[in-house]
Amino acid sequence: MQSVAANRPQRGLVAPSGFTLIELLVVVSIIALLLSILVPTLQNARNQAKATVCASSLHVIGQGVSTYAQNHADVLPPGRLPKIDDCNAYAMIRGGRKYRPTFLAVLGAEVGLPAFDDPQPCGSTYDRFGEKGDRQNYASPVYVCPAVPSWTDERNGAYAYNYQFLGNSRLHDAAILDSYKNWPVPLSHVRSPGATVAVGDCMGTAASWPRGQRREYENNARDADRFGNEGFNLDPPRVDAVSGEMANFDATPQSRSAADPRHRGRASILWLDGHTDGQTLRGLGYAVNPDGVVGFDGDNALWSGTRQDKAWIP
Questions:
Q1: CB count, 10 Å around CB of 117?
Q2: Going by C-beta distance under 8 Å and a sequence separation of 6 or more, which residues neighbour residue 288?
Q3: Model-wide pTM > 0.85
Q4: pLDDT tens digits, the chain, 314 residues: what are they?
Q5: DSSP 3-state assignment of 306?
Q6: Taking the CB of the first residue and of the last residue of the chain, which one, N or C, has fewer CB atoms within 10 A?
Q7: Where are the domains of the chain?
């Protein structure tokens, strides 16, 4: 007699469920497509956030410019006090006596934001972070652009001043201690403050080199081809290469600084009336060669304070 089990129909083995190779490839392709869409969007959002923070910082600096003029008989701040000896020139800033403060350190006293945690009275003394008194690092993030967070050196900084037209406090004659080249400059003498650059993103003297030859930023460096070198001096588009002056004026060859379009092709700019915006190099008047070198023959209409295209000459 046959068993009941023997008469039951035999079932085949069922293969385990899962994705086929084609299905996996489709899923991977979809994920890659989504990433290709989302990553640039997120990057753009981050860049926009940095530009917004930068503009906010420049707005605070602009308040400092205005307050400084109000508190100093209408005079605009100096670019940086000149070197006379190891402890002079100096100024009292928020936190104490500071050797050769830049315009940012001076303005910090006006807005209640100290530029340094341990300001030094002399160039050869060291702060508690090991930095010399003439090359200290900014302590407040207001003075450091978020797009280049390592640019903290007071000499090789991220924000620079239209010093040629608004406050060139270098000396004509080292023996005459008040022979400033173009300072003090009264705010009331600027005819078009809303169309005059005050402070902006600066790439330093690397502007004088082709894009591919510019070297990376280095704190405390003095190499003219590095980003950020002499970054506190913002040269205007038109510079007289013979009789004029530029950021690295005492070097051979001379090298100029320029605005830095680090925010998606635009430089954040503070105008003298206090408003901020983003500008391309050409929009600011710079003449840029195909290799990226910033020339000397730009247009200074937005820098001179009078809407005139003229080079500043000592």
A1: 14
A2: 281, 282, 294, 295
A3: yes
A4: 444 445 555 555 555 566 687 878 888 888 888 877 776 766 777 878 899 999 999 999 999 999 999 999 999 999 999 999 999 999 999 899 999 999 999 999 999 999 999 999 999 999 999 999 999 999 999 999 999 999 999 999 999 999 999 999 999 999 999 999 999 999 999 999 999 999 999 999 999 999 999 999 999 999 999 999 999 999 999 999 889 999 998 877 889 999 999 999 999 999 999 999 999 999 999 999 999 999 999 999 999 999 999 999 98
A5: coil
A6: N
A7: 63-284
